[in-house]
Amino acid sequence: MNQQNRPTASKAQTPPPVIPLGPNRRGGGPMGARMHAEKPKNTKKTLGRLLRYIGKSGVLLGVLLVIMVIVTVAELLGPFFQACAIDTIQKDAVSGRLTVDFDAMRGYLVMMAIVFVISAVLSYFQEVLAAKLSLRTVRAMRNDLFCKISRLPIQYTDTHRHGDIMSRMTNDVENVSNAISQSITSLFSCVLTLLGAMTMMLYYSPLMTLIAVITIPISILVSSKLAKFMRKYFVRQQRLLGQLNGQVEETVTSYKTVVAYGKEEESVKKFAETSNQLRACAISARVWGSIMGPIMNFLGNLQYVAIAATGGALVLSGRAISIGSIQAMLQYSKKFTRPINMIANQYSSILTALAGAERIFEIMDSADEIDEGTRKIDISSVNGHIEFRDVCFGYVEGEPVLQGLNLSVSPGQKIAIVGATGSGKTTVVNLLTRFYEPNSGQILIDGIDIREIPKADLRHAIAIVLQDTVLFSDTIRNNITYGHPEATDEQLRRAAQTAKADRFIERLPEGYDTKLTESGSNLSQGQRQLLAIARAVLADPKILILDEATSNVDTRTEMQIQEAMVALMKNRTSLIIAHRLSTIRDADLIVVIRNGQVAEAGTHDTLLAQDGEYFKLYQNQFAGIQT
Q1: Both ends of the chain: CA-CA distance in Å?
Q2: Rounded Cα distance, 337 and 197, in Å
């Protein structure tokens, strides 16, 4: 679709807001891309939605939680049996000699070995199940996101960077995957370990337990303050990464234009600026994300020393506590602080994942393409009578593109729409196909308001050949049959012959099974256009739209296509968006659009004789040529 009438802002999408990176112009497209403005996020809501995705794998999650409970219990039993084994060494009260109950010690050591083996084996299965849970969750999330993208209105993709949307599908989803497999599942284990260690510590010594928990409020206070400060860096890091991907995608897809205008250095400079911003933000995020771990380790070591000193004081004071119990307390204190340290160390990855999840849910929360049509139509019975009644439309509020457009096209009529750049020619097509909705007025097909027709039915009745050819990384056969996948080989070849594409296709090594590279870059521009025309021929539309369909082919090929177009447009209502006036001389009706209204309408000769707007356009294009 021509860029001249694409939108410069999205009015239908309230969340998230967009800011322009380039100047706007009346009736024109976005002169630069747009990025989301930063705004506060609801972490609690995002985490809740993420947990609902995890909960979809209920059985797997249940088995994983059971294994995590068993592993945690096994790890907590280790210090208990170790303490029992140490306490088998006793000092005889009479002789003062050390005695050892070797049978009891042997039993405790065997129990320790069994516990460690069970813990090791189940820990392996825990990792496997965590990976499966992660992959299932992100598969569901990625599928929902892709389905959502397929339901987004054209307006959304016109006003958001394509690279940023792709970044949400790849980088952000990958961050969520890593968090689920490495962080979120560990949180449950940490909570279990924390509660279990606390219980065992209370069993051995309430006093030493009290000493241990003194550091907890300090840890919570420090971690909460740091988390609040760190969060902004991780959110900004994800946004900059999306912006960087957008710049790469934009540069690669527009590389010829960049080179043709000698903008390589400027493009590199722009990329370097964003990359430097990402580097600085990532360093800040890493630094503040990494500082929490050492602080938690310091507090944990402080707790360890305090417990050891308290235990020694209790022994010296003659309290009833054994050396094994003190050793167990020290072990449990480590297990008590380790979950806190793990949460602190993984907090940065959790923040990154939540920031990515928020960006994913932003797209999911965007409004779907509106389709209130319920009046189904039989495509084969469409006559193709098109009528625009006082249609007004603007991509940006206060900047109208069409202003009370009135136009009637009879069934089977070949109508050409011409006008200066930005006059609203392509907007007519955008509204007819319901890529956008008019602000006011009506568009009717065979007397039916197109808003009453389901979009699928409407678009199946219309075939479009765009100026910018769209081909997929697939075979030529599948590209031509894209709109009619059940077509036979005979129908396929007949469509290619009509479009004059059969000759070059049959010369290819694999013919119709030749695999095209991205956007069909292994074919010439003219050949790509011929395939797009063949696709339209095979779709057998009732209404045909040609948006500068021959603008990218040479004169000889253009003549061949023009011949094919005559056959294709026979008994079909055809709308031709044209800049090259030489291609529309034989149109039944030529409509001149100016300032969003029909300025003139008539045949080529009639309009030239009127010496009006069409005459000026023609003279500007063919100055000095006698007609």
Answers
A1: 31
A2: 9
Cβ 590 vs Cβ 604: under 8 Å: yes
Separation CA 530–CA 525 (nearest Å): 9
CA 173 to CA 142: how far, in whole Å? 7
Tokens standing for residue 8: 């410069």
Residue 592 parent element (H or E): strand 589-594
Asked whether the beta carbons of 31 and 43 are under 8 A apart, the reply is no
Ramachandran area for residue 381 (φ above 0: left; ψ -120 to 50: alpha; else beta): alpha
Alpha helices in 29-86 (DSSP H): 43-54, 58-86
Residue from 270, 262, 276 nearest 32 by CA: 270
Peptide bond into 16 cis (omega under 30): yes
| Rounded Cα–Cα distance for residues 427 and 435 (Å) | 9
Return the sign of the alpha-carbon dihedral for residues 233, 238, 239, 240: positive
Contact 168, 160 (CB under 8 A): no
477/496 Cα distance (integer angstroms): 10
Any idea what DSSP says for residue 396?
Answer: B
Listed as ranges, residues in the chain with pLDDT below 50 are 1-40, 624-627
Comparing C-alpha atoms, which of 177, 187, 99 is closest to residue 136? 177
Distance CA 340, CA 244 (A): 35
Contacts of 611 by beta carbon, 8 Å cutoff, 6+ apart: none
The pLDDT value given to residue 386: 92
Cα Rg, the chain, nearest whole Å: 35
Q: Exposure of 438 by Cβ count < 10 A (0-12 exposed, 13-18 middle, 19+ buried)?
A: buried
What 8-state DSSP symbol labels residue 55? T
Q: What is the pLDDT, as a whole number, of residue 550?
A: 63
Contacts with 240 (C-beta within 8 Å, 6 or more apart), sequence order: 274, 277, 278, 281
Q: CB pairs under 8 A, 24+ apart, for 217-225? A: 218/299, 219/296, 219/299, 219/340, 219/344, 222/292, 222/295, 222/296, 222/299, 223/292, 223/296, 223/340, 223/343, 223/344, 223/347
Q: Would you give the distance in Å from CA 452 to the centre of its chain?
A: 31
Looking at the chain, the whole-number percentage of residues with pLDDT higher than 70 is 86
Q: Are 419 and 593 in contact (CB under 8 A)?
A: yes
pLDDT at 51: 83
Q: Is residue 553 exposed (0-12), middle (13-18) or buried (19+ Cβ within 10 Å)?
A: buried
Degrees to nearest 5, angle at CA 534 with 529 and 536: 100
Length of the chain: 627
Maximum C-alpha span of the chain:
131
Q: What is the pLDDT of residue 4?
A: 40
Task: Give the whole-angstrom CA distance, residue 234 versus residue 231.
Answer: 5
- Let me know: does 247 contact 292? Beta carbons within 8 Å: no
pLDDT of residue 443: 93
